[in-house]
């Protein structure tokens, strides 16, 4: 059993039920004290039994990285899902040869790279062990979490989370790498990635990679960035990773430089992940079925209906139909689910199917006549009949 010395430093004033806490971990792996920032959304306090997915943000010693991510997910989150956001600091301590590069970069092989970074690199394996054996268990122990973890990293932070995919593939499920430094050590990560065995990936990974205008000029700092960026994406899209890695990429070179790429990259990276995970029919049903089998969530007519509407409200009515059919299979006596399906079919112009669903809602409702309040029953029946009439014109 691991032991941590944890100090809760402060809890910020709540804003609409949201909290930001700071924690300190006396790490035995790093032989250092490290700070964490932890954001919990209003749903965490509102629903005391609800468990949430966790996003881990690297480079949180610069508070704006953490703030961008937890602010972004408030705009992107839905009714049935929200995120705990954890920011992990990588401080600069000269006397300990400690820096963000120490944490994020694996041991260099190329002589020129070794000379460039000196003692401030090469600690990625140790830092990865710290995250895996100390940070994640602490967060899982103290907070109500689901075992779905997202990593967000910029520049060398993006290098690190990509490194973690190869060396600890079970640690994260999604990777948002914003302007990652794949040119490090003459493309070391691209070479490592080529040797990655797909069988080590036990379930599909989501990978988002973006770039800014690195390597578009003559600045030697960005030498090789575009070349290895393209190479990594090509490797990840190799057929051997089909069904193992879902890759999305975006190019912000026309408008962004390396320093300005994080906010826009975080937004589109997180949006792409959320759309893929929570607004794509087959992914929604398989994900929540898995959580239910593990007794991590309890499915009920209300939350499965909201899962379908999460797709519908985000202009994905066909995915909503996939989810609502899955919901109906589980709760065949819930008249409201048939009504929702009718609405989804109506949206895509399949009025015959919409009519059948609305009629089914009436049929199922009629079986509940003796169990419902008379006025509520009458109102609901009138509403369903109105739906049938509307699509029958």
TrEMBL record:
GO terms for molecular function: hydrolase activity, acting on ester bonds. The keyword Nucleotide-binding does not apply. Pfam families: Esterase (PF00756). Keywords: Hydrolase, TPR repeat. TPR repeats lie at residues 335-368. Belongs to the esterase D family. This is Putative alpha/beta superfamily hydrolase. It comes from Maribacter polysiphoniae.
